[in-house]
Write a structure and sequence with these properties.
It contains seven helices and 23 strands. With 481 residues, it is an alpha+beta fold. Among the domains are: 161 residues, Super Roll (Bactericidal permeability-increasing protein, domain 1), CATH 3.15.10; 157 residues, Bactericidal permeability-increasing protein, domain 2. The longest helix is centred in the middle third of the chain and has 40 residues. One of its GO terms (cellular component) is extracellular space. Keywords: Disulfide bond, Glycoprotein, Secreted, Signal.
Length: 481
């Protein structure tokens, strides 16, 4: 995988004007481009010796010549850089590269009646080779990043030629022609290769980027498409992404818009990613609208040691029969189901150093009876706030519940008045035994970021900002030639 993959993936992750507010933003700093440049030169050094050069032939005055079996025998890495061109794109420049070639030659010399034919081989060293190419970046009709070469120039500083053969005056005539050929050939071949890498290889890599990512067994779809073209500043470039999660079978745009992503000045890391509040909030909207936030809790959902919680009869411990005595008396020696659902759109709140989510819902209790009928018992109204932590592991954003608080009220009861203290104990146990572990299991699965498994995050930090999570990281990538 060549360095274009590195650049392609970096792109999927401003003081420019953004027409549509993004839910997700990525910033690629000069540090990342310096790293990409190192990979680019390593790739170039591996590719150049493998380049195929066709035979060359021509004539000059009385000399007809042919160069065959031309091969590159050495490449000296240049000093190079990839720089941001504010308002335009990127520029890759290199200076003082060196290319060594070896070839077989044959010359025919004819002057009147005098004819000579001879052959040998030649070693050529081109030095002071420089090139510069500008890369224009934008977005295509599908919302993916797009890249194209906006011009390439190349020059050769000097050419040293060592011809091995006989008949000195013919070789001297021939030497000048070789130098002209080399000076024409190297810029054309080098720019052709660079343009091919940008316009074909890099563009093909960009087309492979997954801007639509399925979540939760494909029930949801995460949309990472660009909402505007990248913006270029002197020290970094930024990309702006939709960052919207919808229900796969029934995609609907939420009735709210992304909030402004807070400004952040430092650019010490290679890559910065902002996950706006809009991303999890759009997920919750899709989940609420499509009945995903409802669950019927039964004994099979609990660990074996805790399944007694749903019993209506128990000798000791906290079971439904003890917490709601009327249920134990009316339906002894059976179990209860808790039918849980969210009754309004949950809310995610992000503020500096603080991440929480609030839910409002109902828990309806039903008894299991030998006849198979499930008589209704009571309904509880519950509002809860969950305090959360977030971190990065395996290039995924992972979350964990660190604390919770809730309020409970009896909305309706078929088994008479209930003790407020016992009802709070009931909900507290449901939280402890099922709801929080279930949420933590989902949080451990992680939220995917627009990078590939070829990258490893280094020196990664996650900060909770106002209405956004901000990730700053360096990258490590093992190039494959």
């Amino acid at each position: 995988m060549l360095w274009w993959t590195l650049l392609a993936v970096l792109l999927t992750v401003s003081s420019g004007v953004v027409a549509v507010r993004p839910g997700f933003k990525a910033r690629i700093t000069q540090h990342a481009l310096d790293y990409a440049n190192q990979q680019a030169i390593d790739a170039l050094a591996a590719m150049v010796p493998k380049a195929s050069i066709p035979d060359q032939s021509g004539s000059s005055g009385d000399v007809d010549y042919t160069l065959k079996n031309i091969r590159i025998t050495g490449f000296t890495k240049p000093s190079s850089s990839i720089k941001i061109v504010p308002g335009t794109g990127l520029k890759w420049s290199a200076a003082n590269a060196g290319v060594n070639l070896h070839a077989d030659w044959r010359v025919k010399y004819k002057k009147g009646w005098f004819k000579v034919s001879t052959s040998g081989n030649v070693d050529v060293s081109a030095h002071g080779v420089s090139f510069s190419v500008t890369m224009a970046l934008g977005d295509d009709s599908s919302g993916r990043p797009a890249i194209s070469s906006a011009g390439c120039s190349c020059s050769v500083g000097g050419v040293d030629i060592h011809i091995h053969g006989n008949i000195a005056f013919i070789l001297n005539l021939f030497k000048h022609e070789i130098e002209k050929r080399v000076r024409r050939m190297i810029p054309g071949k080098l720019c052709d290769a660079v343009n091919q890498q940008i316009n074909a290889n890099a563009e093909n890599q960009l087309k492979k980027l997954k801007v639509m990512t399925p979540l939760a067994n494909k029930k949801f779809m995460l949309d990472y498409r660009l909402v505007s073209a990248p913006a270029f500043q002197s020290a970094y470039m930024e990309t702006f992404h939709k960052g919207e999660i919808t229900w796969t079978a029934n995609p609907q745009t939420p009735p709210f818009s992304p909030l402004a992503i807070p400004p952040y000045t430092p650019s010490n890391n290679m890559l910065y990613l902002w996950i706006g509040k809009y991303v999890p909030q759009s997920f919750l909207y899709a989940a609420q609208q499509n009945g995903f936030l409802r669950y019927n809790l039964t004994t099979k959902d609990l660990p074996p040691d805790n399944r007694g919680f749903l019993n209506t009869t128990c000798s000791s411990g906290s079971c439904i029969g003890n917490l709601v005595p009327a249920v134990g008396k009316k339906y002894p020696n059976t179990t209860v189901e808790l039918h849980m659902l969210s009754t309004s759109l949950p809310a995610v709140n992000m503020s500096p150093g603080k991440l929480e989510a609030s839910f409002a819902g109902e828990i309806a209790l039903y008894a299991n009876t030998p006849s198979g009928k499930k008589p209704y018992l009571l309904t509880l109204s519950v509002s809860a706030i969950f305090n959360m932590s977030a971190g990065i592991a395996d290039q995924l954003v992972k979350g964990n519940i660190t604390g919770s608080s809730f309020k409970v009220a009896v909305k309706e009861s078929a088994v008479g008045p209930q003790s407020s203290k016992r009802i709070n104990l009931l909900v507290g146990l449901a939280m402890k035994l099922f709801i929080i572990p279930k949420m933590n299991t989902q949080g451990e699965k992680g939220f995917p970021l627009p990078v590939t498994g070829d990258f490893k995050f280094l020196n990664t930090q996650l900060h909770i900002m106002q209405d956004a999570l901000m990730i700053g990281t360096d990258l490590q990538y093992t190039i494959k030639f």
